[in-house]
Please model this.
Amino acid sequence: ETGVTQTPRHLVMGMTNKKSLKCEQHLGHNAMYWYKQSAKKPLELMFVYSLEERVENNSVPSRFSPECPNSSHLFLHLHTLQPEDSALYLCASSQDLPNSYNEQFFGPGTRLTVL
Amino acid sequence: KNQVEQSPQSLIILEGKNCTLQCNYTVSPFSNLRWYKQDTGRGPVSLTIMTFSENTKSNGRYTATLDADTKQSSLHITASQLSDSASYICVVSRGSQGNLIFGKGTKLSVKP
Model:
């Protein structure tokens, strides 16, 4: 276990549904991340939070809405998704924002299927 | 363009054999290079992190090399085990802010 947990592990939703992904880290880290991993593509960084403030948003559609209520929890709220949004969504945390020596610890991911 | 290319895309080897995975990058400015192992249905787990001045770093049966001049890295797995079956992802950290550039990964299958 890496100290980063994600729920649910699997999610199937229709295009009109609203759902949320949850991430929790037990490592005392200050930075948290959402990544999208699609088949045969590199991991894509979606959002970065540092000390509960969003510091990076990589041109992610507004149907994805992140929330970081405290440094241990990160949510990704989903609404009116498209089938092409089906992917593995990974949460990660690191002591601080990435630099030469900050290692990122990943959660197990949520496998999302949009019908 | 900042890119990380990995080869081969997939690899099948017999248990007990060695193998080497390749990573070429065009990321600039370079900060560090990381290798991750990702089991099916799991998140990536860090194997090694190497900075500009490090040529080799080992983690058990995994040995990573870095040639910063040619912008190439390799991951060598010795005496492979069935549990080594996974995707191996090369990641290059760019600049002082450490933006991570991910490769697509090499999928390794170790057969008995």
